[in-house]
Amino acid sequence: MGHQNAEELQKNAVELLAKIKGKELSVKERLAIPPQEMPAQDPRVRRNNMNEVTTGYSAEQAQLEAMRCLQCKTAPCVASCPVKIDIPGFAAKVADGKYGEALSIVLESNLFPAICGRVCPQEVQCQSTCTVGKSLKDPQKAVSIGRLERFVADAERASGKMGIPALAAKTGKKAAIAGSGPAGLAAAADLAKAGHSVTIFEGLHKPGGVMIYGIPEFRLPKEIVSREIETLKKMGVDIRLNFLVGKTRSLKELFIKDGFDAVFIGTGAGLPKFMDIPGENLVGVFSANEYLTRSNLMKAYDTERADTPGFRAKRVAVLGGGNVAMDAARTALRMGAEKVYIVYRRTEKEMPARIEEVAHAKEEGVEFRLLENAKRILSDDKHRVTGMECLSYRLGEPDASGRRSPVVIEGSEHVLDLDAVIVAIGNESAPLLLQTNPDINVTKRGNIIVDDTGKTSLDRVYAGGDIVLGAATVILAMGDGRRAAASINELLAKT
User: Fold this and answer.
1) How does the average pLDDT of the chain come out, rounded?
2) pLDDT tens string 432-457
3) How far lies 424's CA from each of 323, 364, 375, in Å?
4) CB-facing half-sphere around the CA of 327: CA atoms within 13 A
């Protein structure tokens, strides 16, 4: 693995690059270049710190990985990218060592490449259709597009050359954004580039949404999110914190009192789901939202400097199999847990978490208890968690989503000794804004209904991200934000 031999990876990259640099490579020669492994911290070390797990490509590794791109004319990767980055174009520039030009190409479609390069599930988006992966009959050998995106963003930041995109002349129009998560930030960027005056309203005391409170430091350093937000501020975007649209101001007041010409709602899916089993109200049971927010936003892990109370558990079970479950389990290790379990009622094949995140969790010592689920949570006489009674499952026929349904094995009850349980089975839409605006059409699950342009049932009100999609990914939310911004730009050009 990369964490064991970063020096060897670099030595191999330097030697191979010296042999092929400057040559006109055939398709066969490009396919023969080995995929470049991402160097990472040793898992025995990193499970005890909050520093970023992966350390990023070197210049030589990035050039070699970019040379693996076949420069397909059909570019299926672009069609699979939610924000339609010109991937062959930027890969060609990386291969030539022109990192600034590569970044410029990325920034035309995505203002936050350092974030997306780290947390977006490229393996099920742009990389899933990569011709290299298909030619080698191994999707994991596709060109590592996300790692290249991260590399060029980091390289330009380090060089101090990161500027801001070109801005159109001021239009005199005003747009409001509710929520500063990925959808809101992407919409703000495109609206500001079009010359509109943009104000983001954020309910928390820090901007960034799920990227700040949800995704751990070791996967997405908060400094990177802050730097990307600083770019928005340099573009003239005003960010107002501790301002809850729906409570501090209603949607109507944004139009009537503040004079906004359009509003974009990107308030996310912040209401955690629970299992509805006995014992979920015990001391030591958390939603993943609360657990991760205490750690990420309020830095509960930093016991020397933060006053945030952090629950110090020794034996922790995390219920769920998505990225949030992996984040919670790996955070629990870093918070001092001696034993951490992922309890998931299907097999690893059905897990929605990224392959890389599952691999990192295993390397760090998280134990996966598959085809199991909680029946009830047990306690002592002080209502503190002492364990969890679980059931074993087998997989039956596929359900509506296409995944095989778990079926309980009768008489399979067994107990795990625990002192904390973290529930990470998903989130629902943040309800406050919808409760105060009953005129917005929503689904049964409380997701806002929008048309193909991102417009809601209300005039001049658009929405995107998790409030529309349910809990989705950073890049899908950004795609929603960009789509809605394009519609708002069109609307404001006519008025």
Assistant:
1) 93
2) 777 888 889 999 888 999 999 999 99
3) 9, 19, 15
4) 32
- In degrees and rounded to multiples of 5, residue 333 shows phi and psi of -60, -45
Tell me whether domains 174-270+428-494 and 274-425 share a fold: yes
Where is average pLDDT lowest: 12-16, 128-132, 299-303, 346-350? 299-303
Q: What does the domain layout of the chain look like in residue ranges?
A: 6-159, 174-270+428-494, 274-425
Tokens 């960027």 identify what position?
189
| Of 164, 146, 23, residue with least CA distance to 87 | 146
**Contact predicate 26/33, CB 8 Å:** no
Contact 339, 318 (CB under 8 A): no
Kindly report the CATH class assigned to 6-159.
mainly alpha
Backbone angles phi, psi at 365, to 5 degrees: 105, 5
Residue 21 CB coordination number (10 Å)? 14
Percent of the chain whose pLDDT exceeds 90: 80
* Domain 174-270+428-494, architecture per CATH: 3-Layer(bba) Sandwich (3.50)
Q: Cα–Cα distances in Å, from 72 out to 17, 27, 83, 112, 144?
A: 22, 10, 19, 25, 15
User: Given this structure, which CATH class describes domain 274-425?
Assistant: alpha beta
Burial label for 302, CB within 10 Å (0-12, 13-18, 19+), is middle
Residue indicated by tokens 């995109």? 165
For β-strands 385-398 and 414-417, DSSP reports them as antiparallel
Q: Is the dihedral of CA 160, 68, 112, 105 positive or negative?
A: positive
* DSSP states of 386-423: EEEEEEEEEEEEE-TTSSEEEEE-TT--EEEE-SEEEE
Give the model's confidence band at 163: pLDDT under 50 very low, under 70 low, under 90 confident, else very high. Answer: confident
Amino acid at 303: T
Q: Give 21-44 pLDDT, tens digit per residue.
A: 889 999 999 999 999 999 999 999
CA distance 244 to 263: 14
The CA distances from residue 212 to 218, 242, 367, in Å, are 12, 15, 27
Rounded to the nearest angstrom, the gap between the alpha carbon of residue 93 and the centroid of all alpha carbons in its chain is 26
Which residues, 6+ apart, have CB-to-CB distance to 360 below 8 Å? Answer: 40, 43, 53, 326, 330
Summarize pLDDT for 38-80 with one digit per residue, the tens.
999 999 999 999 999 999 999 999 999 999 999 999 999 999 9
- Phi first, then psi, for residue 284 (nearest 5°) are 110, 0
CA dihedral 281, 285, 291, 295 (to 10 degrees): 120
Given a cut of 90, is residue 82 above it in pLDDT? no
pLDDT at 2: 40
CB count in 10 Å sphere of residue 29: 12
Backbone phi, then psi, for 481, in 5-degree steps?
-60, -40
Count how many residues are written for the chain.
495
